[in-house]
Design a protein that fits this description.
Elements: H1 5-11, E1 20-24, H2 28-39, E2 42-43, E3 49-52, E4 55-60, E5 73-76, H3 80-89, E6 93-100, E7 105-111, E8 117-123
Parallel strand pairs: 1-4, 5-8
Antiparallel strand pairs: 2-3, 3-4, 6-7, 7-8
Helix pairs in contact: 2-3
């Protein structure tokens, strides 16, 4: 018997794995456009839902971003410079520019279109 994608995803979860995410958004359509453009997420226009690699979630309009408190999400990016360009083109801002983190990784911090702090992690360019 073939499983639908939602059942397959649920059965594939491991204890302790982040499986659902709520992101604060004053404007869920603006947030959806930002995450579609910058990270390639699939979004629903009639619901405040999204699908990202390995995770599903929703934007919540009744919760404010907490730039100075709480957890920070870190997203892997294939090309740091391209991603930072997309961030600023789509209403976000660079909070901390890229810096090396050891010999193979670079890190940067952004604010998404709603003001949520997000960490970006990419591979350092070859020397």
């Amino acid at each position: 018997m073939t499983q639908d994608p939602e059942t397959a995803r649920t059965l594939g979860l491991v204890h302790g794995q982040v499986c659902y995410l709520q992101l604060p958004a004053a404007d869920r359509n603006r947030a959806a456009a930002f995450y579609r453009a910058v990270f390639g997420w699939q979004t629903e226009t009639h619901h405040p839902d999204f699908d990202s690699p390995g995770l599903i979630g929703q934007w919540v309009e009744d919760r404010r971003p907490a730039p100075g408190a709480g957890p920070v999400l870190w997203f892997a990016v294939a090309d740091m410079n391209e991603t930072l360009g997309q961030v600023t083109r789509h209403g976000g801002q660079v909070l901390e520019p890229p810096v090396p983190d050891g010999p193979t990784r670079i890190l940067a911090t952004i604010a998404d279109s709603e003001g949520n702090p997000i960490g970006l992690a990419g591979h350092a360019p070859p020397r």
